[in-house]
Amino acid sequence: MQRSRLFSALLIVAALVVAACTNDGRDDEGPGPDVTRPAPEGPGRDVLLGLGAQAAQETRAAYLGGFATAARHADLVSIARVPPWEEFFPEAEVSEETHALMRLERDLVQQYDLSLLFAIDPTDGALQRGRIAGLPEAIQPEQGFLRRDVQDALVAYAIYIATNYDPDYLAIGVEINMLRARAPAQFRGFLQAYERAYDAVKTIRPGTKVFPTFQLEDLLGRLTQEHPPQWEAIDEFGHRIDALAISTYPYLSSAIRLVREIPDDYYSQLRSRFGGEILISEAGYASATIEGHSWVGSEREQEQFLQRLLEDAEANGFSAVVWVAERDPGQSRQGGAAVLNDVGLRRSDGGGKLAWALWQAWARRPLVGESGN
Question: What is the pLDDT of residues 336-349, one digit of tens each?
Answer without folding.
Answer: 566 777 899 999 99
